[in-house]
Write a structure and sequence with these properties.
Layout (H helix, E strand, L loop, with lengths): L6 E5 L9 E5 L5 H11 L4 E6 L9 H19 L3 E12 L4 H8 L3 E7 L10 E9 L9 H13 L22
Parallel strand pairs: 1-2, 3-4
Antiparallel strand pairs: 4-6, 5-6
Helix pairs in contact: 3-4
Length: about 180
């Protein structure tokens, strides 16, 4: 980071101090933590954002994976407006429903986006990292990542049923005459 750079870390648990880095204890979703980060950043932009955010694991895979994607979208919404041109964003993801939809929205912000599974990961692990390089802020859509991701997930999980169009026919229904 050189002599003029800063490293800012956020974790729910207190971490050991490290010379040249500032560690904040708290939840990145809280405005007070976000304001502290922006105060440290000042007028500068981030060069890199590394996110290892993960939900409290419940044991229900579908819920855990869904919440993990929501957290990534939330971090993205906070951090990307403060990422400089050409910067990078790296985040952990859990493979499953919605990952492709999230990635397709993230790709709108970067020249290069790819998935990476470290050798240290177990073969059965669904954990992958998303490596996003060369931020292109001028291509950013107007809506938040969370909103765009929710829209894509709604379309995926609740496909619209085509409206049934009436068809004209010459067939007639006649009532049977009673005696």
């Amino acid at each position: 980071i050189g002599t003029s750079g800063d490293v800012v870390g956020v974790d729910l648990q207190a971490t050991q101090s490290l010379e040249g880095a500032t560690f904040l204890t708290g939840d990145i979703r809280h405005e007070s933590i976000q304001n502290q980060i922006l105060e440290i950043l000042g007028e500068r932009k981030f060069n890199a954002i590394l996110s290892d955010i993960s939900p409290d694991i419940t044991g229900n895979w579908d819920i855990d994976q869904s919440v993990a994607l929501e957290l990534v979208a939330m971090v993205f919404d906070f951090a990307i407006p403060h990422l400089g041109k050409g910067g990078c964003f790296v985040t952990k993801l859990f493979q499953g429903t919605g990952v492709d939809e999230l990635i397709s929205e993230i790709e709108k912000h970067f020249a290069s986006v790819r998935r990476f599974s470290p050798d240290a990961s177990r073969n059965s692990s669904s954990e992958v990292y998303l490596i996003c390089k060369h931020h292109t802020p001028w291509k950013s859509p107007g809506k938040s990542m969370s909103e765009r991701f929710h829209n894509k997930m709604n379309a995926l999980l609740n496909p619209e049923v085509e409206e049934i169009q009436p068809v004209k026919t010459s067939m007639r229904v006649r009532k049977k005459k009673s005696d």
